[in-house]
Amino acid sequence: MSDSIVDSAGQGMSKRELLAMIGKTAGASAMYMAMAGMEQAQASNFKGPVKLEGGAKGASVLILGAGVAGMTSALELSKAGYKVQVLEYQDRIGGRSWTLSGGTTYTELGGATQTCQFAPGNYINPGPWRIPWHHHGLIHYCHELGVELEPFMQVNYNAYVHNTKAFGGKPQRFRHVQADYFGYVSELLSKSVKQGALNDAVTKEDAEMLLESLRGFGALDRNMRYVKGMPSSGRRGYDKEPGGGLSAVPEPSDPIAFSELMQSGLWRSIAGNLQWDHEFTIFQPVGGMIQVGKAFERAAGHLVRKNSKVTSIQQNEKGVVVTYKDTKTGEVMKAAADYCICTIPLPILAQIDMNVGGELASAIRAVPYSTSVKVGLEFKRRFWEQDDKIYGGITYTDLPNSQISYPSSRYGAKGPGVLLGCYTGGAAGYELTASTPEERVAKVLEWGSQIHPQYKDEFMNGSSVAWHRIPWTLGCFGTWTEQTRADHYKNLCQMDGRIMLAGEHASYYGGWQEGGITSAIDTITRLHQRVMAG
Ligand SMILES: Cc1cc2nc3c(=O)[nH]c(=O)nc-3n(C[C@H](O)[C@H](O)[C@H](O)COP(=O)(O)OP(=O)(O)OC[C@H]3O[C@@H](n4cnc5c(N)ncnc54)[C@H](O)[C@@H]3O)c2cc1C
């Protein structure tokens, strides 16, 4: 049995190299997951509409923070008969479920104020932007509270993948890279099967089925080769597309040479979209993620006191007293209740005077928040649709902006269009966080113009959010490690006297709204059990 496999470009490849290549692909997927950070593949434990039965025995609850965790708690507890008051720092309900559109004004830490200049109808979601189909809790509230959902275009085969060090820095179409990668892997695997290299692992009958499946999976020709021709072009697209009449005959396109494809590293960009958190169907609210906050406001906004900055949380055996400052008048006030559910993000909570036990106090300080920056750019026209035929989806690049995401709605709209020119974290996130808003936009324009040369002529204005500079979160979302989970997670979630924490940080769904909602439901259920137990 030969240990050598010859690919269609005539290049020899050992079995070991093939296995290493497959290993690298798995590694790419893992790396993508790490880069995406928040996207943890957990199933939601939402079990259907919340039922808190038996009355509230006159109990009152103070809820701190009006993001999805605070508002889910407020809505359900008030429905169950509890006396509820929510204190919220901002003059808006929804927390990180936020949208930047024309007129949105915000001041970041350091004092820079931005007023978004986007034309009517254009927006970006600087925080949450997509809702996977299996986020059952969030989708339940969207349906119940009237948030209209539309498809979020997670994958667009006609968008680009880009490595500055490959193909002379020229972006490649996602579909070319994916089709060619699937094709070559299928061809190589079929050769291994035919040479009996997998006899130990695959029965004869299964091997036959595997070969048949690889032909379809990889778009191979009748000789099980991935080469220029109708099968491969039916997957990757044609040099001359099929038409009508005398000029109808399509011309197939040339696959990228195997070695060039491998060395480009662009295969790294295709695996992420196969993750469970990114698979279709994936949604976005029509009009932006701010619609989630607005829907909660319609349902339970009367329970919220906005512009109320909590500065102290004190409990005794009878109840909880919270001190807060009215951010408009400067007046300092107190609110009291039997219990408190606190959803304030941990970097802020760690700075609030609070009399809780040592275990909870340590847990609050144990979870760092990841960095993340998004930059929205408005252009005179939707050139990505008009020139590049990209309708929604994401371009991935090794440039510091990391991603360019095209709007998933209003295709073909005339006039100015907005795209997300940057969604990045890690070192690039810190670099942009350290930059002024103007510098962020300038850098993102420079990077993006290497992919879309139209940027510089068509640019109108830009807005950015660097999450470590947002005074009401001081970071993007909590990042747990196995060790911090083992040491602190239970202590963070457990009731401490009369105080309980909820929020995405108190979930295994970190960095997703679903985490905030399922954490809130778990918290109010345990609180209700305690009240029922008397
Ligand atoms: C860049 C980014 C991308 C994301 N992508 C997605 C995504 O695609 N899909 C998804 O589902 N999720 C995503 N998330 C995660 C999602 O935003 C969060 O998990 C969720 O919104 C957290 O809800 P929460 O109620 O726990 O906290 P928050 O929404 O942060 O609510 C906390 C509230 O507390 C208030 N507060 C803070 N300090 C005080 C104080 N001193 N006094 C009173 N109130 C205070 C804040 O103003 C805020 O309203 C993303 C987040 C970021 C930042």
What do these coordinates show?
This protein has 534 residues and is an alpha/beta fold. It has 3 domains: 4-36 and 159-274, Up-down Bundle (de novo design (two linked rop proteins)), CATH 1.20.1440; 60-91 and 291-366 and 482-532, 3-Layer(bba) Sandwich (FAD/NAD(P)-binding domain); 100-128 and 370-469, Polyamine Oxidase, Chain A, domain 2. 34% of the residues lie in helices and 20% in strands. The protein contains 17 helices and 27 strands. Strands 16-4-3-20-27 form a 5-stranded parallel β-sheet, covered by helices on one side. Strands 12-11-23-24 form a 4-stranded mixed β-sheet. Strands 19-18-17-21 form a 4-stranded mixed β-sheet, with no helix packed on it. Helix 2 runs parallel beside helix 9 (290-300), helix 2 (68-79) packs parallel to helix 17 (513-532) and helix 4 (174-194) runs antiparallel to helix 5 (204-218). Flavin-adenine dinucleotide is lined by residues 38, 64-70, 87-90, 95-97, 127-131, 309-310, 343-345, 348, 372, 374, 467, 472-473, 476-477, 503-504, 511-516.
